[in-house]
UniProtKB/TrEMBL annotation:
Pfam family, one: Sulfatase
Domain (Inner membrane protein YejM N-terminal) ranges: 6-230
InterPro entries assigned to the protein according to its UniProt record, in alphabetical order: Alkaline_phosphatase_core_sf, GAG_Ulvan_Degrading_Sulfatases, Sulfatase_N, YejM-like, YejM_N
Species: Gilliamella apicola
Transmembrane segments: 5-24, 30-54, 66-85, 118-140, 152-179
Name of this chain's protein: Choline-sulfatase
Length: 608
């Protein structure tokens, strides 16, 4: 047992040395604190993983010695080779290897290996196996004296256990205070899931999580965003007001004359363009809103959060001296938009007062009206209103019920046989209530005379399933079908309508909002690819074959006919549009293109 444990400790050291390659990617530097933390993080992380492998390897001790040694040598040489290959993948793509990447590589559609490559891999496997076998042999031969071996094992264990504690505790503190020099280390280490707990930290410092350490130069980040310095409105063109109205969990089929009549009539009466095939960038709030404000995939969320990198759209508004009003019903700290998209906004409104979602929705309406009436009219204005009632299936008790029968929502009792009608009616009633509140917004835009000088975008952050696919899914964050990702998307106030109308039946998503606004309303001269992976909706869309969507831990590549889903541990599934297994192979060229977008803003930063 002791010999096996000694073998494990040596492999921890080998893996730690290999892991150094993760931190040698081009143009990335760490502060002394970040570098110190990364040492503890690597040692502690591999210690925790290898302790599990130690326990799993114990049964091999019951086998004959040479068979035991051979099995262990094969297993651990495979682990070290996989780790080494992962460093190669990470240096090229800035994400770690998983089953989806392997499927794409082995499909033969996008990568061809030469005979030399196969020979080198074979030599690497043989060399690794021989090295591991030699280590086992030397340990078994007791090269070191027993008492000296025991002392080394004890000291090594204490060092590794201390590293594990320091790295986990350090990351918990860093995450609470948004300290990016430590937080960014997470993205370099494969399978690394450090501890976070706002509840524990708030016990010692309740207001601490709002003390964001903002690094305006992002010197600790691997992010190359934007690719080049933005050239903003060099001709000093007149700027329009811009407004986002977003309903949390808004289904595409509840934008209608019956369920949202005020918005429906407002759009029809003001030449609004309704997009019929529009999707969020995710099936969860953080990735849906992230895509809306950044114009890039939600898979970047963690990296941007760790480095507190703001949206180029927001910083462009600030440079153009916009009045900026952020009015969210739920807390802007959960998800942490105060540390991402809105990190550069001073005196950010954190949330509405505590209360039900419908009460908070009423409050943001009243707060926006008061703010808008007294804004500086000599400057253009950006407004963001984010309603929450549909997410909570909530509306005031005194609000007249239009949709019956009405049921109560209890996620504990929902199953595949639950009748969706009463629950769907409650949901529709909540959308109906928010639509009632929105009439106040529309009236103010008209009354103030600012409607003609405002570009208004109305949409949802994601959709909300009512077991549409008959697979027991309710709500969101569960799959990437239409029921959880397709949302209403309307543009009101645009003057150039021809391309918008032509694109309204094309495949579009939230990544397209920022490039459309930056190019046509903020007059940014840069190529769109400097700051977005989306499309300009005011130009013809001719070549889009897929969309990239994500949530907290998974992502999917959506085509008009299928969904390629990759879960949190990298296992992929190919499904039809109703989340059932498809009896065909995916187009791996689409998958590779999507992965390029997922790594595009990790590329080496150009010199100014």
């Amino acid at each position: 047992m002791k010999k096996l444990y000694c073998f494990i400790l040596i492999n921890i050291l080998i893996s730690s040395f290999i892991a150094v390659r993760f931190f040698l990617v081009p143009d990335v530097s760490f502060s002394w604190l970040g570098s110190t933390f990364s040492v503890f993080a690597v040692l502690g992380h591999f210690f925790s993983l290898y302790i599990l492998l130690f326990l799993l390897s114990i049964p091999t001790l019951w086998l004959r010695k040479y068979l035991c040694h051979a099995i262990l040598a094969i297993l651990f040489s495979f682990i070290q080779i996989t780790l080494y290959v992962d460093t190669i993948v990470f240096q090229q793509y800035r994400f770690h290897i998983n089953e989806s990447v392997l499927s794409m590589v082995l499909s033969g559609q996008v990568v061809d290996f030469s005979a030399t490559t196969y020979l080198l891999m074979l030599l690497l496997m043989v060399a690794s196996f021989c090295t591991e076998y030699l280590i086992i042999y030397l340990i078994d031969s007791q090269v070191l004296k027993p008492h000296r071996k025991s002392k080394i094992i004890l000291l090594s264990t204490l060092l590794l256990a201390a590293s594990l504690f320091i790295s986990q505790f350090g990351h918990m503190v860093a995450f609470y205070y948004a300290y990016s020099p430590i937080m960014v280390v997470k993205e370099y280490i494969p399978l690394y899931r450090p501890f976070t707990s706002k509840k524990i930290m708030s016990f010692f410092d309740k207001q601490g999580e709002r003390k964001v350490v903002y690094d305006k130069d992002y010197i600790n980040a691997t992010i190359d965003y934007p690719k080049n310095r933005l050239v903003i409105n060099p001709e000093n063109k007149k700027l329009k007001n811009i407004m986002f109205i977003v309903l949390d969990s808004w289904r595409y089929d509840t934008f209608s004359n019956e369920i949202s009549p005020n918005t429906f009539h407002f759009v029809k009466n003001n030449n609004g363009v309704i997009f019929n095939n529009h999707y969020s960038t995710g099936n969860a709030t953080r990735t849906g809103i992230f895509g809306l404000f950044y114009g890039i995939p939600g898979t970047y969320w963690d990296s941007f959060l760790r480095a507190s990198i703001p949206s180029s759209f927001i910083t462009t508004l600030q440079k153009e001296n916009y009045n900026i009003g952020i009015f969210t019903s739920a807390k802007v700290t959960a998800p942490e938009f105060d540390r991402t998209a809105f990190v550069t906004i001073e005196n950010l409104r954190i949330s509405s007062k505590d209360g039900s979602a419908s009460k908070r929705d009423k409050q943001i309406t009243e707060d926006w009206l008061a703010w808008y009436k007294f804004r500086d009219i000599s400057r253009p204005t950006f407004s963001f209103l984010f309603y929450d009632a549909p997410h909570a299936y909530d509306f005031p008790d005194e609000f007249s019920v239009k949709f019956k029968p009405l049921g109560d929502l209890n996620y504990m009792t929902l199953n595949n046989d639950t009748d969706p009608l009463p629950i769907f009616n409650r949901y529709k009633q909540s959308v109906y209530y928010d639509d009632y509140l929105l009439q106040n917004i529309y009236d103010e835009l008209i009354k103030s005379g600012s409607l003609n000088d405002t570009l208004l975008i109305i949409t949802g952050d994601h959709s909300q399933e009512m077991n549409d696919n008959k697979l027991g899914f309710w709500g969101h964050n569960g799959n990437y079908t239409d029921a959880q990702t397709k949302v209403p998307f309307i543009i009101v106030g645009a003057t150039e309508l021809s391309n918008l109308i032509n694109n309204s039946n094309k495949l579009t998503n939230h990544e397209d909002v920022v490039p459309s606004l930056m190019k046509n309303y903020l007059y940014v001269e840069n190529d769109i690819r400097d700051y977005s992976t989306g499309y300009d909706l005011f130009k013809p869309i001719t070549d889009r074959n897929w969309l990239l969507m994500s949530n907290y831990s998974s992502y999917a590549v959506r085509t008009p006919d299928n969904i390629y889903f990759v879960n949190r541990i990298g296992i992929s599934r190919y499904m039809d549009l109703h989340n059932r297994e498809a009896n065909e192979s995916p187009n791996y060229q689409y998958i590779q293109d999507a992965m390029k977008n997922m790594s595009y803003f990790f590329n080496q930063r150009k010199s100014d």
